[in-house]
Amino acid sequence: MSKMWAGRTSAQTAKIADDFNSSIRFDKRMYKEDITGSIAHAYMLAKQNIISKEEADVLSQGLASILEDIETSKLEIDLNCEDIHMFIEQELTSRIGDTGKKLHTARSRNDQVALDLRMYLKNEADIIVDKTKKLIFAIIEKAQEYKSAIMPGYTHLQRAQPVLFSHQLLSYAFMLMRDIDRLKDSKKRMNVSPIGCCALAGTTYDTDRYFEAEKLGFEKIVLNSLDGVSDRDFCVEMLSALSILMMHLSRLSEEIILWSSWEFKFIELSDAYTTGSSIMPQKKNSDMAELVRGKTGRVYGDLIGTLTMLKGLPLAYNKDMQEDKESIFDACDTVKMCLDVYIGMIETMKAFTDNMKKAAQGGFINATDLADYLTKKGMPFRSAYKISGEIVSKCISEGYVLETLPLEEYKAFSDLFEEDLFEEIDLNTCVNKRKSVGGTSIESVENQIKYLKENL
Ligand code: ARG
Question: H or E segment at 158?
Fold first, then answer.
């Protein structure tokens, strides 16, 4: 096929080289950004008298008709073209004739692709923020549904202190709030226009980069042309934000998988979000959660791949950079899918609050409260800690829990123990006494929900 850039070479590239070089398979999804960018470029050229107003109108109408035909499937994107930018320019010229050849004045594919990608990702960031918000709402709703259910809180995956299930769920809502923050922050640096940097050095035409940037909804323009065409920090930043988001989903997945096991039986996922086994009839597997955990590795791979691709590149544009798109697109697609599946999975999840409570009663998770009881009656904490440990040890060897050990046995350890001890080590008391800001009491959980709702 004859190349648009034929001239310096005869452009008789090998078929295999064409296939290897081509990016249209994956950059075709930026057709809309490419067309929108080109329309703004045409009007900038006209405003600066580089082309006439009539020519800009013809270019703009031609481009708009291409957009419409792609969106209504009247026009199929030709995968034999090198990339989406070439395809659209070629299609434009075939529709409107020689005027089409004026569009690429005072720009290069290098600033064009940087522009398209920023525009595309700004929109993706908005979509992902939106889906993350929906997931946060689903989590808040679950927390409200099971607001007072008590479960064991763990450290080292050992039962540590009782917490509210709602408190544990909400911790993920706070993580996701930070993810939203990070995405919005990365969008700020994406919101700077590279168009007009041209191939690498700027242009001799009297262009108006500010006009073009403003038309396209950018807040600022890149002030160094070499930087403008070679910067992919915005991809790396977004990939980092997405990796962290996936890390959070992966940690929640791990809990969901554990909680769904027979060993825990704290929750049950809806049949709509689980699968069976082809051989073991009793199985109900948390495949969705497992897949999210698995896909986290894939998004990390996209991040590391992009960082590695960029690390040795001299200025300015290098073809290596074409590899940016598959990584960032894959990460966006993966995260969007994971969020969609997660929203439904959380919305339909059921909790077995009795099992949680039973587990909370079994592991001496009120031992800290026992020590606090003595401390509040005047014993130094370290001594109270030691006595409480001895009492736990006695209970274990004699088959008691702290709630069932008789008061006389307690008194043998310290005179400070009185009947009110049992109220103090009751799990409900343990939870609801923890009124410190951010603690696990109902009151605190209600404040957290209020905060989240106000800040969403
Ligand atoms: N398809 C290319 C990319 O995605 C567009 C830029 C091509 N520029 C060039 N000088 N060959 O990076």
Answer: strand 158-164
